[in-house]
Amino acid sequence: MEILKGAEVSAKIKEQAAQMLSRLGEHVPKLAIVRVGERPDDMSYERGATKKMESFGLRVQSYVFPEDVSDQEFKQEFHKINRDEDVTGILLLRPLPKQIVEADIEKMIDPSKDLDGISPSNIAKVFAGDSTGFAPCTAEAVIEVLKANNIPITGKRVTIVGRSMVVGRPLSMLMLKENATVTICHTRTRELEATCRDGEILVAAAGRAKMLDSRYVGRDAVVIDVGINVDENGKLCGDVDFDSISETASMATPVPGGVGAVTTAVLAKHLLCAALRRAGLEG
User: Fold this and answer.
1) Which of 153, 196, 209, 276 has a CA that sits 20 to 30 A from residue 15's CA?
2) Is 86 in a helix, a strand, or coil?
């Protein structure tokens, strides 16, 4: 089984990003990372995104608010970030605490700065196949992994396990745009094992540690593991039992070191796209 490492895909995106950045002259785009509270997974993603932006030569600033910030106060502060001319794009770390009405923030965010595809406008564009809408970075990272490794998507049977608006549903639309034949499964799908085995490309995005083992993987399938979980030993793992599929799958992404490394590279690419659009230089 060939291991599809995210670092190599990220390096290819970095080359594209360097060309995009050169078109902006002296202007360096700025990412605003908005975090509420101290959730470990949010802070981990924030560190990774900050490191990636800096390695791509981009500016980044974190805006951190206490866990108990009121809905009104957070909206006031978010409005300022949203309107700040120096901010090219925004990454809002979610889920937000219960006292904040997340749907209101999704409607507030400027679609041209919404780099992770949370605004109704961008979601609608993704579902309509309109490439001017920003797709969620993780969903797009899956496509980037496949293309960077010259894995054909057109005409392939793609099975996606997971139906969230972060990965499963938008990814199904991106796959359809690439002319794949898509099946979306979830934890309540009947005959889940057989349905997964039918996929020539299997994407695991269910959010359950090591849920998919060799019983779910067809012979020579390509397996993309989007899950990020912590196992019983406190180690990071995906939704796939990686060791068990080595004799069945032809290729697979590891966790860590797979899709996650590409997600932040896609975020950087989106930031540069936003800057080029604002400058009227896209195309």
Assistant:
1) 153
2) coil
**Topology adopted by domain 135-258:** Rossmann fold (3.40.50)
Binding-site residue set for NADP(+): 162-164, 228
Cβ neighbors of 156 (< 8 A, separation 6 or more) are: 180, 181, 200, 201
Q: Which residues pair with 157 in a beta bridge?
A: 181
Tell me the binding residues: 162-164, 228
Q: In what order do the strands lie in the sheet with 89-92?
A: 59-65, 30-36, 89-92
Question: What are the distances in angstroms from CA 107 to CA 154, 158, 224?
Answer: 34, 32, 31
pLDDT tens track for 141-175: 999 999 999 999 999 999 999 999 999 999 999 99
Is the full-model pTM beyond 0.70?
yes
Which residues touch 266 (CB under 8 Å, ≥6 apart)?
13, 137, 138, 140, 141, 144
CATH 3.40.50.10860 fits 23-112, yes or no: yes
- Residue extents of the structural domains in the chain: 23-112, 135-258
Which is nearest to 127 in space by CA: 117, 115, 141, 137? Answer: 117
Tokens standing for residue 166: 């972060």
Burial class from Cβ neighbours inside 10 Å (0-12, 13-18, 19+) for residue 150 reads: exposed
